[in-house]
Predict the 3D structure of the following.
Amino acid sequence: MGNKIENFLPKNSDLKLDKEIIADLISPSKRISCVLFYDEVGSELFRDITKLPEYYLTRIEIGLLKQAAIELSDKLKNMDIVEFGSGNSTKISILLETIPEEYRNTVCYVPVDVNEASVRKSSEILSKKFPGIKINGIIADFNTQLYVIPKETKKMFCFLGSTIGNFSMDEALRFLVDLSNIMNSDDLLLIGFDMVKNIDIIEKAYNDSKKLRNNYPDHPLSYFSRALAV
């Protein structure tokens, strides 16, 4: 079906990332960018964490997506489905499954992620599962590279997993403003927000009971999980 994957990350992105890491760690409110979490290893670790009983968010969102997918299925004809921070194919499959086979060939799935391995793997899985749907993978940082999204097509933007919760208030506002600036009047937006939770619930979700983080002791996501355990 003419599937393709395009890499728009700048060649000096590693150097830029190093500078951002240093700036974040010497700032008054120290942080680690979530961009660092989801390389190939981090994506695998996080996927395993989401399967644990205490990680409630994925289970809840999948239930909500199944409801939304039924309402959206008739609206996805001749549309690009753009997913930011696509990761694996579990959630987007829920939407794609509801698209009637007779017009799946009018739909293009556009996963946008900084992790090329994840985009390639999910694209391969989805191509086999939904052979009629075109796939145009984009390797890019959606925080700063929204301009690479195709502009001439009708789109539904998906920002799932409460990923927006990784942003500060200013970052979230800036992202939503930037996104609105590239959206056309007939585009759609499907976004996931988690409600405010008790701190104990959040810590249990990420400080996994099976200590899966110990399988990857040097990964940033492991540092984050260990910090919650202190």
User: Anything to note?
Assistant: The radius of gyration is 18 Å. The chain has one domain: 33-229. Strands lie at 4-7, 80-84, 108-113, 134-139, 155-159, 188-191.
